[in-house]
Amino acid sequence: MPVNRNALIRYKTLDACLRNRQRKWTLDDLIEAVSAALYEYEGIDKGISRRTIQADLQMMRSDKLGYFAPITVIDKKYYTYEDPAYSITNIPLSDGDLSRMNEAVEVLKQFRGFSHFTALNEVVQKLEDHVYSTGRKSAPVIDFEKNEGLRGLHWLDTLYQAVVQKQTLLIQYQSFSARLPQTVPFHVWWLKEFKNRWYAAGVRESKGPIMHLALDRILAVETAPETDYLPNVTVDPDRYYRDVIGVTVSERLRPLKVKIRVAREQAPYVETKPLHPSQEVVEREPDGIVIQLVVQHNLELEREILSFGDGMIVLEPERLQNAIRQRLLSGLAAYEKVGQGKFPS
After folding, report:
1. Omega before 231 within 30 of 0, i.e. cis
2. What digits encode the pLDDT tens for the residues 217-233?
3. pLDDT digit string, tens, across residues 271-291
4. Inside any domain, residue 46
């Protein structure tokens, strides 16, 4: 990395010299200017060799960096740009460059809804303006899943800064099952996203269990400067979520081997987009496949299985099989009530 940075300093210094037509630049002058720049920016005081500067000038002339610099030598002694308006900072973008930058803009724009990316928003806007002013504006190539109506996203910046600045928060929170909101001290350790919903993961007290507060259930947030922040020094988020689907993690439950028969119509989707990193195909049948997961039994696992309807059948463990069967029976009973006119249509 330092070598690349030093090379960039040399190229920019040479570019500044060659653009300055108020004086004539010999090779020795260029060496002196580059040596001074390296000392100023990097503290390098051993100078630079003639061979290095000559190689740099040749590199700028070539297409290896895309510069094609029109460097000419006058009277076999003085270096300058043949085109007075040229600079390596004004290189036109190719169609390929524009295409890749446009795709990058579309990716970065997905973060505009999050206030803790405010600084990034400005960068994206500048990049977008440059791309669109340089080339033709085209329809987006990538369309991301997003939920514009999701509540609570405005808390992201406050929660993010609380982690970075190690601040304890007082959070007014009301879960879906609670009748009234409750204000609790909370030490945010990280932010977690699952299926377009954001959660603040952290603890309420020392040695307390890790909790997940859904941002759409947060009513108010303020700092608690009189309470010392409890930092996360032991938990690796990747390892913490390793054995679950979603965010519901039990520190008491061990992961189970879950076997599921997947119907032939659904099998390609499940194979190409696994339910969990532990997923593996353990059997192939004429009517589908049997997959195995090693995960904890939680609500998110049940919902994932139920989302496939009759395309998935739990083979084991029996407890999960019974839970899915009961949910399907309850759903069937609800539809029968609709058919009998017991629910308003």
Report:
1. no
2. 999 999 998 889 999 98
3. 999 999 999 999 999 999 999
4. yes
Spatial CB neighbours of 176, under 8 Å, sequence gap ≥ 6:
217
Q: How many helices (H) and strands (E) does the chain have?
A: 10, 11
Backbone angles phi, psi at 142, to 5 degrees: -115, 130
Same domain assignment for residues 262 and 323: yes
3-state secondary structure of 193: strand
pLDDT value at residue 2: 41
pLDDT digits (tens, 9 = 90+) for 51-89: 999 999 999 998 887 788 999 999 999 999 999 889 887
CATH code of 322's domain: 3.30.70
Long-range contacts of 61-70 (CB under 8 A, 24+ apart): 65/11, 66/91, 67/11, 67/91, 69/15, 69/18
Query: For residue 221, which phi and psi values (nearest 5 degrees)?
Result: -140, 135
In angstroms, rounded to a whole number, what is the distance separating the alpha carbons of residues 213 and 154?
Answer: 14
> Are residues 260 and 334 located together in one domain of the fold?
yes
287 in helix, strand or coil?
coil
SS3 32: helix
What's the pLDDT score for residue 147?
A: 65
Does 283 map to a domain?
A: yes
| Structural domain of 298 | 256-338
- CA separation for the pair 113, 145 (Å, rounded): 13
pLDDT per position as a tens digit, 183-240: 989 999 999 988 888 899 999 988 889 999 999 999 999 999 888 999 998 999 999 9
Residue pair 316/283 in contact (Cβ under 8 Å)? The answer is no
